[in-house]
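Design a sequence for this backbone.
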């Protein structure tokens, strides 16, 4: 189009559906002169008239073009969300593990959880992936070509490749390879931007505000929400006391009896959040029409008090929060002194001052955990 028609489209990579975009403007150009829509850029303006060229620039400065781009983006997002939902509900999934040739059927999450647990290969929460079969095919093709999934080097045979990926901890995909962007739902939310670009924008926004005067800013307590109802509390002690008295769930006792470390507590909280969100009892697996019915059932049957077997909830998939910015996760700690209810001399604030815990939680957030890897070999 540039060479033959001297026609230029600005930010073409941000157009969600290029075919529909072109068809729309092709029709409009038959209805009105192209100069009604495009800016005219003259090249070689100082040269003789016969050597000058006029180029036509179409961009979203034109309200009609901006509206079209937004509509196409929204349509694309709706289509991809519908595709994702179909895949999440699909029970006819069938595939073979690319590392051990074990066969899996049912839901795709079974395969992804197996690869994370048994092969330390974690591509993120299965629910965040779309076009799953194409994704797996792309990964399998790289392995068939004896190519490392992370550094993308090629090796002479399969055993050498396996040893390399194991020793170098390259059992993950390369986040900078944009080939994978189309398989993650977050890359469709703001078309033309990857999750890394979105995150870097957030980081720059923070850096830009470093020198602002915060002297008149008053801090308000951030509250953590109960696992079973909408009750909020601004300290760990208050929230744990509420869950114990109102629901019969003693988080501190469970933590002590089972010897739960920080990451095990994270997985337990995320597991319970997920089950309650889906209105499903985490002990008997019965599903209810509402959260109120579920909690009533769990309290009457005492199913709320006891945990299911550890293998049910101690799974890699529960590293990922059910709710973004779940403040309860920031109160968890390995420290017995900090979390023992009877020996506490003061309330523990919801906003943790343990930087290692905050860093761990930051790494388990939605964006960063899309490509999270378990390092246990």
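Sequence:
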């Amino acid at each position: 189009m540039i060479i033959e028609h001297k026609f230029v489209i600005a930010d073409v990579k941000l157009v969600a559906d290029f075919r529909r975009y072109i068809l729309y403007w092709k029709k409009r150009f038959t209805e009105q002169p192209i100069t009604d829509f495009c800016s005219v850029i003259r090249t070689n303006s100082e040269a003789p008239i016969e050597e000058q060229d006029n180029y036509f620039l179409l961009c979203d400065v034109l309200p009609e073009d901006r509206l079209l781009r937004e509509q196409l983006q929204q349509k694309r997002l709706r289509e991809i969300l519908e595709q994702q939902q179909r895949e999440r509900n699909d029970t006819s999934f069938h595939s073979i593990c690319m590392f051990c040739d074990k066969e899996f059927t049912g839901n795709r999450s079974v395969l992804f959880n197996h690869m994370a647990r048994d092969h330390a290969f974690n591509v993120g929460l299965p629910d965040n992936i779309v076009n799953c079969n194409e994704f797996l095919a792309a990964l399998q093709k790289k392995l068939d070509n004896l190519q490392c999934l992370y550094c993308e080097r090629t090796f002479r045979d399969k055993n050498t490749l396996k040893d390399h990926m194991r020793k170098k901890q390259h059992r993950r995909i390369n986040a900078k390879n944009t080939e994978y962007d189309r398989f993650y739902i977050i890359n469709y939310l703001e078309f033309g931007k990857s999750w890394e670009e979105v995150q870097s924008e957030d980081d720059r926004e923070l850096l830009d505000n470093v020198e602002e005067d915060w002297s008149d800013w008053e801090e308000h307590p951030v509250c953590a929400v109960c696992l079973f109802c909408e009750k909020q509390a601004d300290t760990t002690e208050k929230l744990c006391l509420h869950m114990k008295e109102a629901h019969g769930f003693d988080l501190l006792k469970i933590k002590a009896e089972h010897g739960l470390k920080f990451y095990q507590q994270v997985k337990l909280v995320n597991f319970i959040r997920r089950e309650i969100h889906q209105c499903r009892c985490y002990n008997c697996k019965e599903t209810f029409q509402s959260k109120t019915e579920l909690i009533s059932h769990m309290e009457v049957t005492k199913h709320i008090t006891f945990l299911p077997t550890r293998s049910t909830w101690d799974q890699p998939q529960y590293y990922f929060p059910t709710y973004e910015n779940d403040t309860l996760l920031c109160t968890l700690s390995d420290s017995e002194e900090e979390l023992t209810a009877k020996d506490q001399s003061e309330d523990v604030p919801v906003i943790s001052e343990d930087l290692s815990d905050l860093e761990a939680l930051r790494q388990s957030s939605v964006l960063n955990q899309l490509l999270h890897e378990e390092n246990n070999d």
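The longest helix spans residues 63-89.
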